[in-house]
Task: inverse folding
């Protein structure tokens, strides 16, 4: 039995229907397989904007750990958001991969420095977060979206200095506080709020809340209006009418407060004198000794002590010499002693106002109570407005610290084209071989038959 | 070639094939129409194009993160389904019928990765999103379009409400202020602060677009001028009148309140002034020679580094002394103003009726003027904001036609051609098979004949 290449082609042509059918079947089978086994992977790139991350630290100075993206805190919120069962938490965590995206120039620099034995720290600040999801691209994307959104919230709450204020206790007038204490609590709260809002206003460059079109300055105006008119009126009524719920207790309290201020004053004065002694002793011990502060003889510029401890993000010198620290402590103690003396004097002043024997009148008490009530009522909507602005401001702050460089991109893990092609090629190849083998076998059998026939 | 085609056509033009093909074409067309009517017409696509500064970075106009999944929020879906038959459907279920895609291809993703690796920080955030919605019950009334349009409207409203600029501050409603209860100076303060805030807002809008003109012919610059005139002329006249004549609704209360403020501010002044004095005096206790050789990198006012040959302790304490002094000075100024009030308002036990009447009249006029300016300002600024934000969003809804006649025609045509090809192949195959069977039979007969001859 002799075969030529043309015979093979003849066989293929003969078995064309079989070949076509098998190729189509394997192609369809491949498609079916991809359809059954398809899963999606979603990716997102996040970048931290704070320079401290490049030094491996968070804004609070703790070490930065990007794996917090899959921390239980974040995962619990993801489970809540997506409505998945809590048993899936670990499964989601396992499917998330966080890969740092490193700046090649920095890597080379690091390697070069390490070769020269120089320590060089480089921490990447951009990361690719991938999630190997399920057969639904929507679910895959929404889970990664939830992970990122919840992580951003977590990061903001954990590491960012978000705006916040303390609301006044609206029920303080129903508690056992004396009138002056109520007024003081309200005044203190309003002053603290104004102070916080002023710092946010300075930092935010005239931020206006999109929810209600109110800026920090407008809120400050509203609180200051209260601090200039209604609150002083309350104090004025209390002082002039000597209105108190319990005069001896009030006087005792202010006397105690005064004595406390005086004790702090004495302590601070003592501390100041001791600090001064240390400063003098320090100078005496160091002046004639060559050291970092005082090098004897002539020195070249290379020998000058250079303090490198400068915080790049805040651009301030953090390093401070011991003598400088002592000096500042000394100045602060003296100031604190004086401040406490002034505050003690103020307590004396209040005691003086209440000490004479005039008895407060019931009518005046009612007026003060009404004024305090009015004040608290006016503060309630003001704080509600302030919280709205602060909430908007905090969501405006977050993208300044951490951003997405690319939105969530998802792609199938199995390609229809590749699998379809492989299926079709495999089907085509195998069916060709099968057809040729069958034909050769058939031919062989016929030849054998012929031979046998001839012999017979 | 022609003969080949002719052969093919001849094979087709057998009655049974023609009938079969005609039936198949009708069936395919009918199936396509039915599929279109029941399925495709109930699947809708909407594109959302963002077009505002910051959208290319994935931000909302207010600088917060843009999150397209807000479109799936229960609040918006509830609004969108209102008044439709699907109102009874569960909101959570409707959420699952909505899906999004974006145009972030793996290529764009790789480009961003490459840029980060190269030390650059390219950002690729899509500004076009695709939203798909498919109605569950295909045999029910088609409400896909109505639902998706309602959703677009609800989202637009939500987005503008939450993330775009507002100008509520320009509203001056005299009824919200209790001028009758406030003293004259307090009313002045209220009006002054309100006007200052209004000016600040209009100025910020003017700086973005100083050529905008409203339908009334006002531009933002004119509004600013009107407000400034009100503040510098009308309001100042009123202030001058009440302070120069010491006009108050209750002079003694006024003086007592001012006295309290003076006392309070004096306490703060004493604290800051003492701090400034102490820190100034303490500088002489610093022994400068101790730090002769310490060079410390520091920054100057321009935020440039310089080598500071210091004594940081001296720097800090001097700076603190100066800050305290500035605060003390500011407090002193406020105390001076308050003392001035105390002298002027305390000069009379009570204000004359004539003066209070005049102050009331002036205040009423001020309120009227500010109300007028406020309505003009609000209208102009509203138009400005509308103009600025009108293109923030573009929603395009792609609806599938109800019957899809052209698709039906195409399907029928394509199906018929494919079937025709199969029929021709079948016919060839059948003929071939027939021929081969005949040949085998002939061969069998020939063989039988040969055997018989043997």
Result:
């Amino acid at each position: 039995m002799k075969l030529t290449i043309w015979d093979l082609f003849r066989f293929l042509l003969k078995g064309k229907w079989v070949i076509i059918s098998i190729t189509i079947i394997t192609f369809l089978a491949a498609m079916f397989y991809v359809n059954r086994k398809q899963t999606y992977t979603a990716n997102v790139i996040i970048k931290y904007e704070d320079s401290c991350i490049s030094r491996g630290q968070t804004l609070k100075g703790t070490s930065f750990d990007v794996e917090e993206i899959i921390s239980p805190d974040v995962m619990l919120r993801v489970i809540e958001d997506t409505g998945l069962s809590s048993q899936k938490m670990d499964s989601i965590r396992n499917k998330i991969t966080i890969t740092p995206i490193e700046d090649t120039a920095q890597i080379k620099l690091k390697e070069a420095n390490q070769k020269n034995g120089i320590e060089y720290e480089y921490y990447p600040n951009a990361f690719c977060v991938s999630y190997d999801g399920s057969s639904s691209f929507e679910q895959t994307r929404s889970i990664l979206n939830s992970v990122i959104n919840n992580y951003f919230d977590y990061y903001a709450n954990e590491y960012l200095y978000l705006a916040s204020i303390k609301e006044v206790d609206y029920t303080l007038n129903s508690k056992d506080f004396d009138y002056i204490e109520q007024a003081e609590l309200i005044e203190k709260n309003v002053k603290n709020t104004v102070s916080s809002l002023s710092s946010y206003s300075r930092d935010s460059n005239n931020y206006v809340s999109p929810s209600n079109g109110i800026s920090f300055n407008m809120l400050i105006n509203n609180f200051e209006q209260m601090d200039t008119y209604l609150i002083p009126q309350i104090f004025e009524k209390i002082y002039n009418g000597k209105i108190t719920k319990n005069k001896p207790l009030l006087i005792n309290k202010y006397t105690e407060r005064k004595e406390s201020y005086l004790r702090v004053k004495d302590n601070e004065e003592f501390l100041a004198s001791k600090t001064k002694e240390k400063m003098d002793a320090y100078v005496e011990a160091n002046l004639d000794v060559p050291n970092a502060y005082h090098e004897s003889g002539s020195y070249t510029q290379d020998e000058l002590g250079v303090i490198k401890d400068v915080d790049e993000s805040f651009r301030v010198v953090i390093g401070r010499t011991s003598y400088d620290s002592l000096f500042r402590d000394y100045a602060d103690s003296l100031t604190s002693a004086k401040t406490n003396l002034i505050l003690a004097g103020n307590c004396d002043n209040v005691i003086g106002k209440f000490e004479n024997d005039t008895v407060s009148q019931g009518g005046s008490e009612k007026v003060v109570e009404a004024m305090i009530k009015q004040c608290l009522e006016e503060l309630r909507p003001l704080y509600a407005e302030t919280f709205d602005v602060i909430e908007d401001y905090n969501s405006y702050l977050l993208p300044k610290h951490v951003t997405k460089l690319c939105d969530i991109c998802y792609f199938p893990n199995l390609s229809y084209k590749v699998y379809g092609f492989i299926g079709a090629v495999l089907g085509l190849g195998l069916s060709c071989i099968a057809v040729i083998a069958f034909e050769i076998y058939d031919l062989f059998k016929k030849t054998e038959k012929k031979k046998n026939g001839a012999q017979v | 070639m022609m003969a080949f085609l002719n052969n093919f056509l001849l094979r087709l033009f057998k009655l049974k094939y023609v009938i079969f093909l005609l039936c198949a074409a009708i069936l395919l067309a009918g199936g396509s129409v039915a599929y279109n009517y029941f399925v495709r017409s109930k699947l809708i696509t909407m594109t959302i194009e963002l077009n505002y500064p910051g959208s290319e970075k994935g931000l909302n106009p207010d600088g917060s993160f843009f999150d397209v999944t807000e479109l799936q929020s229960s609040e918006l879906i509830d609004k969108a389904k209102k008044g439709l038959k699907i109102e009874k459907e569960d909101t959570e279920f409707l959420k699952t019928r909505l899906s999004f895609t974006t145009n972030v291809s793996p290529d764009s993703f790789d480009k961003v990765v490459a840029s980060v690796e190269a030390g650059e920080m390219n950002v690729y955030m899509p500004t076009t999103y695709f939203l798909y919605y498919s109605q569950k019950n295909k045999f029910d009334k088609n409400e896909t379009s109505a639902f998706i349009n309602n959703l677009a409207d609800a989202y637009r409203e939500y987005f503008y409400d939450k993330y775009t600029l507002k100008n509520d501050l320009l509203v001056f409603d005299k009824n919200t202020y209790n001028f009758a209860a406030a003293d004259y100076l307090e009313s002045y303060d209220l009006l002054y602060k309100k006007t200052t805030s209004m000016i600040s807002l209009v100025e910020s809008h003017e700086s973005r677009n100083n050529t905008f003109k409203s339908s009334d012919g006002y531009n933002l610059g004119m509004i600013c001028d009107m407000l400034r005139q009100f503040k510098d002329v009308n309001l100042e006249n009123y202030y001058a009148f009440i302070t120069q004549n010491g006009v108050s609704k209750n002079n003694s209360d006024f003086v007592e309140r001012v006295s309290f403020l003076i006392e309070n501010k004096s306490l703060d002044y004493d604290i800051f002034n003492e701090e400034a004095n102490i820190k100034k005096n303490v500088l002489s206790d610093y022994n400068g020679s101790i730090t002769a050789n310490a060079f410390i990198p520091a920054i100057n006012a321009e935020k440039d580094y310089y080598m500071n040959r210091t004594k940081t302790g001296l720097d800090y304490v001097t700076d603190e002394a100066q800050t305290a002094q500035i605060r003390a000075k500011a407090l002193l100024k406020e105390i001076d103003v308050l003392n001035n009030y105390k002298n002027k308002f305390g000069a009379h036990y009570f204000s004359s009726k004539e003066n209070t009447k005049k102050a009331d009249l002036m205040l009423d006029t001020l309120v009227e003027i500010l109300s007028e300016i406020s309505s003009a300002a609000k209208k102009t600024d509203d138009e400005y904001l509308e103009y600025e934000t009108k293109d923030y969003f573009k929603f395009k809804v792609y609806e599938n036609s109800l019957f899809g006649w052209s698709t039906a025609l195409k399907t029928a045509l394509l199906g018929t051609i494919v079937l025709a090809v199969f029929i021709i192949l079948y016919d060839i195959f059948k003929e071939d098979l027939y021929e081969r069977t005949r040949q085998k039979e002939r061969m069998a007969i020939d063989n039988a004949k040969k055997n018989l001859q043997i």
Summary: Chain B has three domains: 39-164+393-398, 167-246+360-391, 250-350.
